[in-house]
Amino acid sequence: MLIAALGKLPGIGPRSAERLALHLVQTDTDVVRQLAQALLTARERIQLCRVCGALTERQPCAICDDTRRDAALVCLVERATDILSIEKSGTYHGKFHVLGGKISPLNGVGPEDLRIAELEARFATEPVKEVILALGTDVEGDATGHYLAKRLAAKGVKVSRIAHGLPAGSGLEFADELTLSRALEGRREIQ
Amino acid sequence: MLIAALGKLPGIGPRSAERLALHLVQTDTDVVRQLAQALLTARERIQLCRVCGALTERQPCAICDDTRRDAALVCLVERATDILSIEKSGTYHGKFHVLGGKISPLNGVGPEDLRIAELEARFATEPVKEVILALGTDVEGDATGHYLAKRLAAKGVKVSRIAHGLPAGSGLEFADELTLSRALEGRREIQ
């Protein structure tokens, strides 16, 4: 049963699950109890920020609550974990909003299933000037971006999207055709 | 000797070289003769275009010679093979120029080792308005880009660089910090 439960975790296959389970049953009971307690506490405490939808232990989350961050900028991401990716880059000082997925008619996900109304509600209480779409660059991400650009522009905010192009540390020989055509199209003048 | 010669080809290790050699010595002599002849002919015929530095069988190359292409745009690439990558994307209709590498003090490559003077010479005979830097996004590519932007701007041409950002079909979770910070920095307003 432990093996089955562990095997459901992402990135852990049947063999890893077996190895983990064998390790756990041979470990000191106290250590296992601590791990179990940590799992439960984390699950109980972590909730979605009621403003931005990020994972947080307090309401609102530390980012929404940080007055030093630029409230005029809201970066829209698909998943709460995307916030961590952007925070690691260390160059963004605005706020975030988690969409909770992307529009995907094939999977039955429409605009009403995403946290778009919650975003629009923020425009009334926060001085939002620009929404930066930081969505994936696949077909669904692009479609969601187009939909949002139209819908949000009608609300009077500036809508931008992060650059599509050559990733850092790469050469032209590793880029696919679509990336290259977007990189060329999105070229910027060097002043 | 054949194994050693084959093993020097890119992407062919000792095992592949052995397999290829064994195959070749058991192949019909005529087929081998044809292959050898094709190698020699290609090596004799292929030369660098004296205008742009691309690999070509005629002077100037088909792209330089194509009057339907926009002569106001010159896309600057590191290697002749980069032209193929961009041509495959099918969205670029300007001309090219091969730099022949990038500035790399550690490897003893300075600006004078690259085909920069050849590019500047083209400004006198061609109606070049914009040079698009399509270099790799590593440290040396960036440094070369900065150097060229300064040098070419003094010649009165507009200098731009292809977009750095999220590659096509990717999500934020696969992007490194530097790519994300460049993607955010290079964000574009959606009209």
Provide a brief overview of the structure.
The structure is a homodimer of 191-residue chains. With 191 residues, chain A is of the alpha/beta class. In chain A, 43% of the residues lie in helices and 15% in strands.
Secondary-structure blueprint:
The structure is a homodimer of 191-residue chains.
Chain A: H1 2-7, H2 14-25, H3 29-45, E1 47-48, E2 55-56, H4 62-65, E3 70-77, H5 80-89, E4 94-98, H6 116-125, E5 130-134, H7 139-153, E6 158-161, H8 177-185, E7 188-189
Parallel strand pairs in A: 3-4, 3-5, 5-6
Antiparallel strand pairs in A: 1-2
Characterise the protein shown here.
The structure is a homodimer of 191-residue chains. Chain A has helices at residues 2-7, 14-25, 29-45, 62-65, 80-89, 116-125, 139-153, 177-185, and strands spanning 47-48, 55-56, 70-77, 94-98, 130-134, 158-161, 188-189. Chain A contains eight helices and seven strands. Chain A has two domains: 2-45, Helicase, Ruva Protein, domain 3 (Orthogonal Bundle); 56-189, Dna Topoisomerase Vi A Subunit, Chain: A, domain 2. The first copy, chain A, has a four-stranded parallel sheet with strand order 4-3-5-6. A two-stranded antiparallel ribbon of chain A has the order 1-2. Helix content of chain A is 43%, strand content 15%. By secondary structure, the first copy, chain A, is of the alpha/beta class. Chains A and B meet through helix 5, strand 5, helix 7, strand 6 and helix 8 of A and helix 4, strand 5, helix 6, strand 6 and helix 7 of B.
